[in-house]
Write a structure and sequence with these properties.
Blueprint (H helix, E strand, L loop, with lengths): L5 E4 L5 E8 L2 E7 L4 E4 L5 H12 L14 H17 L3 E8 L2 E12 L2 E8 L8 H16 L3 E7 L3 H9 L3 E12 L5 E12 L5
Parallel strand pairs: 7-8
Antiparallel strand pairs: 1-2, 2-3, 3-4, 4-5, 5-6, 6-7, 8-10, 9-10
Length: about 200
């Protein structure tokens, strides 16, 4: 059963509308200057396939785990994302839209009490326009409103665009580790230096 509609203004450029609560999950629509952010739906697997297929064509593909984008694998996976997002605040997946086209997604998965790990991805054609910073800034503000205190993020230090994005959002590098997702032709692990980043939401005014 839905609760009373509420409207909260966080800044001049970002308006967050809380549409109610269902099974303890907050159903949201976030609107920024140029973009809309909504909960992931099962049909979004097509757009996420494009995002992950684009990623496979970049130099950064070795810095993340393998993404199976076959319909047989991806459709049920995104349907599960949509299901858990509706069920509560422990695992949340958001779609980013530009003029009715989905160009990216963001994930928030709880790792400890009031602490979450963030993940994100965007189509290649949407890069270079500041969309990620605009969206993630709004989502971080929303997470703070939910009561989150810390947001964790991990990225390869050689993934310079991602490192720059996290720093612009106020994340700090708190540690590094050797990580491997792929092997070379001889079967040896391909290691890279992964950075562990943290944003303390309680420090934001």
């Amino acid at each position: 059963m839905f609760g009373t509609k509420m409207r909260l203004k966080y800044s001049l450029s970002t308006c967050i509308i809380l549409l109610g609560q269902l099974m303890e999950a907050t159903i949201i629509m976030i609107t920024t200057k140029r973009l809309t952010i909504r909960p992931i739906e099962a049909k979004d697997w097509i757009a996420i396939k494009e995002i992950w297929d684009d990623f496979k064509k970049t130099e950064f593909v070795v810095y993340d785990n393998f993404k199976d984008t076959t319909p047989e694998s991806l459709q049920p996976r995104i349907a599960k994302w949509a299901e858990v997002t509706r069920q509560g605040n422990e695992h949340m997946f958001f779609a980013t839209g530009l003029n009715d086209e989905m160009i990216g997604f963001t994930s928030m998965n709880i790792v400890a009490s009031s602490e979450y790990e963030i993940g994100y991805g965007y189509t290649n054609k949407s890069h270079g326009h500041g969309y990620a910073q605009e969206v993630l800034g709004a989502i971080l503000e929303y997470m703070k409103n939910l009561g989150a205190t810390k947001i964790h993020a991990g990225t390869a230090l050689r993934n310079v665009p991602s490192v720059i994005l996290l720093k612009r959002l106020g994340f700090e590098l708190i540690g590094t580790e050797e990580v491997s997702f792929f092997e070379d032709e001889s079967g040896n692990d391909i290691y890279f230096e992964g950075g562990n980043f943290l944003k303390n939401l309680t420090l934001d005014k």
